[in-house]
Specification:
By secondary structure, this protein is α/β, with parallel strands linked by helices. Helices cover about 50% and strands about 15% of the residues.
Length: about 200
């Protein structure tokens, strides 16, 4: 075990959230290749607690393309991986509408050696690929795109980082609009950051 908490069963999930009502919190899980499994266990626990799935909220990272590009911790080939991701989009859109189904991660790409421009380029390209895969599955971009978030790095060159975030916001709005989004909330770029060490 290199990092995180070992969750191998529903019992582990119950112990982890002992005394915590899932309907009253939001949970962010940095999990990718096994995101669907962990989400299933989280939903099963919510049901055991008697929670309404319409009310539970949180985020799974679920960014498989980044695993190929930057980390190497993928399990399945790309095509089945994309199928799992779009299945999660579809299921959560219908059953768990407050769940953020993917957090497209530039952070790991930056940590793998990319500069700010490369981080933005690879991250938005991954995000666009997820949009296209979901659209090909006949999902409504105005619904599923509202639950996409981003995870960028923030290095110490302040002006460059500000420019990166401003460019990301405008570029993502254009990408989603070009792919058919009409709801402004589906065009929004939602993100959180984590600081890194400038090398």
């Amino acid at each position: 075990m290199a990092a995180g908490v070992a969750i191998d069963s529903l019992l582990d999930m119950e112990q982890l959230f002992d005394g915590i009502e899932l309907e009253k919190i939001t949970t962010s899980m940095t999990i990718n290749a096994t995101a669907s499994t962990l989400l299933c266990m989280y939903i099963a626990l919510a049901k055991r607690q008697g929670a309404s799935l319409k009310n539970i909220s949180g985020t799974i990272q679920n960014d498989i393309l980044k695993e190929y590009a930057a980390r190497g911790t993928y399990i399945y080939p790309p095509k089945p991986s994309m199928r799992i991701i779009t299945d999660i989009f579809e299921y959560c859109s219908n059953e768990v509408p407050k769940w953020n189904t993917i957090s497209v991660s530039g952070y790991h790409i930056r940590e793998a050696g990319a500069n700010a421009v490369q981080e933005l380029a690879f991250t938005l390209a991954d995000g666009k690929a997820y949009l296209q895969a979901a659209i090909a599955k006949k999902l409504d971009i105005n619904i599923f795109a509202k639950r996409i978030s981003f995870f960028f790095n923030a290095h110490n060159n302040l002006l460059e980082e500000v420019a990166k975030f401003r460019a990301a916001r405008r570029m993502w709005a254009k990408i989603t609009k070009d792919l058919g989004a009409t709801d402004p909330r589906a065009m929004m770029l939602r993100f959180h950051t984590q600081t890194g060490v400038q090398h």
